[in-house]
Amino acid sequence: MPLMLVDSHCHLDFPELAGQLDAVLALMRSNDVAYALSVSVTLEDFPKIRTIAEVNAHIFASVGVHPDHADAPVVTVEQLKTLADHPKVVAIGETGLDYFRLTGDLEWQRERFRTHIRAAREICKPLIIHTRSAAEDTLRLMREELAADIGGVMHCFTESWEVAEAAMEMGFYISFSGIVTFKNALQLKDVAQRVPLDRMLIETDSPFLAPVPHRGKTNQPGFVRHVAEEIGRLRGISFDEVCAATSANFGRLFKCI
Predict the structure, then answer these.
(1) How is 147-196 classified by DSSP, letter by letter?
(2) DSSP structure string for 213-247
């Protein structure tokens, strides 16, 4: 089987990438990135993501509202189910909790997260979960809403090994971004060495968090190669082995390749 990489989380509709999409897709091809999942952060912009997926066979989409968007209208289970009823929409999210950027009464954020989990369970599509400075509540709500029934991925993982273990116990994959290439990301490098290879995904979260050696530049899916290279280095395994495992995991979770 030829070498194949998959970027399990990017934002191709964001202006930094949408304005040069042909070049972004060309760089993917030249770096053996065979597939990418373009992830929704608002329902308003979801149609752009769906269109990109519809016209590009190797791009998939998700639908959801990011926890940072405090001003977004209330989202319902029925809305998410209706929008996810499309062959190229393979996941619900990104959703979750973020107590780093927002403060005050965040019960609305927790209720939105619950809504996403309920929709995912009803339509049997996996969750893409964002958590920042909110690991305890994130795991609690996942347990209370029976997220283990459907599973998913903890995207752009930056938490402790204990949080990774708890998520994997609920059937979730752990996804590593370009942060794992940063010199000072010592805790994350340790987690990347310990997560079983069959529970691991890789991503760019582009246009953000470009990996070394592109740190500080606009990130894009073609750069996911550097994440795979660093994980191989940390674990003492070949680049090809990382590619094969993470691509197979992506196909197994999202049932799309």
Answers:
(1) GGGT-EEETT--S-HHHHHHHHHTTEEEEE-GGGGSTT-HHHHHHHHHS-
(2) TSTTSPP-GGGHHHHHHHHHHHHT--HHHHHHHHH
CATH code: domain of residue 182: 3.20.20.140
Total domain count, the chain:
1
Domain that holds residue 177: 5-254
pLDDT digits (tens, 9 = 90+) for 84-131: 999 999 999 999 999 998 888 999 999 999 999 999 999 999 999 999
What does pTM read for this prediction? Answer: 0.97
Residue type, 23: A
Write down the residue that tokens 């994997």 correspond to.
Answer: 168
